[in-house]
Amino acid sequence: MAESPISSQSCHATLTESLASKDEQADLPWWKTTVIYQIYPRSFMDSNGDGIGDLRGIISRLDHFVYLGVETLWLSPFYKSPQADFGYDVSDYKDVDSIFGTLEDFRDLVKECKKRHLRLLIDFVPNHTSTEHEWFQRSLKKDGKYKDFYVWSDGKVLPDGSRARPNNWLSVFGGPAWTWSEERQQYYYHAFLPEQADLNFRNPDVVEEMSLTIRYWLDHGVDGFRVDAIANLYESENVFQDNPRSGKDVPSTEWEYLTAVHTDYLLPECQNLIMHWQKLFDDVQELDGRERFMVLEFYTDSKTRADMARYGAHPFNMDLVEKLSTPLSAKQMMGLIALEYTDKPPSYWPTFVVGNHDRKRVSTKFGSLYVNAFNLLLMALKGTPTTYYGEEIGMEDIHVDYEDTQDPWGRKAGPDRFLEFSRDFCRTPMQWTPDQNAGFTTAQKPWLPVSSDHTFRNVQNQKQDPNSHLNRYKDYVALRTRKAFKYGEIDLNCLLTDNVLSFLRFSGSERYLVAINFGQIDATNDFSVSPVNASTGTVVTDTAAASSELTKGQLIHLQELTLRAGEGVVIEL
Ligand code: GLC
């Protein structure tokens, strides 16, 4: 019995001119046709047996990406750092932490990537430095130009002459965002840990140092950056203003207790800074003709993303990371997806993400049944997708006891609440083989435990199985070599039910229907109606669902097509 479709109008996306893609757009810049893969260096591959992943480890696994067909890597931080926030607390922007290797290793990584035609994006963490950074140490001493490198405040003088913080701002990781420095007799602001002091971007010397940092890595041959915590770069200049209460029922020390109107939104200054960085890219491109790409970490809404694109910025679209409800609703998903193609300026380019090193994995959040469905969705949508390491084999979060918790956010939350905050669960070592520690390290004890399911869930085993997550992922990436997926158009105005979403990708006479059942029950639907207007098609790839009747190359009828729960299919029309 066929399901009754929800009005197809509800998924109608207004396609902007910017997205109108004709064959002549085959020369899209590389970052519009690529797949980005996020490597969390601590967890990817350990080459020296200390239990922590490193750059040589990554080099030794580069052929993984050649196998998958993935062309761009994004490396989370590998800079010199005391590792208070695992590298997001940089103490020297121009050096590699000895845990990860040396600058020479980095240069080799660039070379080895080039050999394989892989692009390299690196994490850039401009908002804050480690308090061990020389700049902070000199700022403590009010030393020359470093005096105002950070956000310092005398705080409020209380009637009894003592000092109090200038405002109620909270740190993202919980607790006050101001810490008193005995040495300087002032408070400094930190959006994250007290060990991560916020730089003062209103100081031109800071802007200059950071520009030099960007230039330094561009000169090392990187293809661009993922910019960390962009919304935190500037705070309201008048620090004697409290953030208002959010009304959320959370402890008063938690970040969500307040609405961060003075600290966590894009001030106009930020726009100028992003444009300034973009200009640095353009300057380098003029010299060597190579286009660079900068993608911004920002959890925001569709309208703000559109506004940002007007001045040339490319924020990640985090809607699928943070806005999907469970159990999944295809209608809700399609609503979020359609936003990405609606009311956007010509400079806008969609960037879809489902997970990262800060959030639960797909399998854990939605269930292992949907791993392939999400991988397929990401690769089939128009835009640039980003895959978090391990998603190609369907890795799951694992439990790490409070006693073994590494993540500062988890540790700060304490034994009763660490489960809500710890990010260790999604950062466990990559599972390469069924051997001890999944082939990640020869150490007895890796920095985080390896999932016990590595004995069957690993790259080596999945390579042997044509229906594995890995080989399906490879298929989905390969879709993007076809014109329709590489630079073709998307039409979202197709069949949509509570459980099933579908869309068309096309270029010239090439047309594909992508249909995915995100529900929990089988669904039979008529996909032949407009705009599909076809009664049969050939299966190109699917999600290899158990008991599925679909096989690659099979001719199928679209009037009554059954998709199992979690099943998706790409049909050439
Ligand atoms: C970003 C990173 C996160 C880090 C934080 C502070 O949100 O993704 O891992 O803890 O910035 O640098």
Automatic annotation (TrEMBL):
Pfam families: Alpha-amylase
Organism of provenance: Plakobranchus ocellatus
Coiled coil, from the record: none
Domain Glycosyl hydrolase family 13 catalytic intervals: 38-427
Protein name as catalogued: Neutral and basic amino acid transport protein rbat
Alphabetical list of SMART domains matching this protein: Aamy
Keywords of this entry: Glycoprotein
GO biological process, one term: carbohydrate metabolic process
Domain of life assignment: Eukaryota
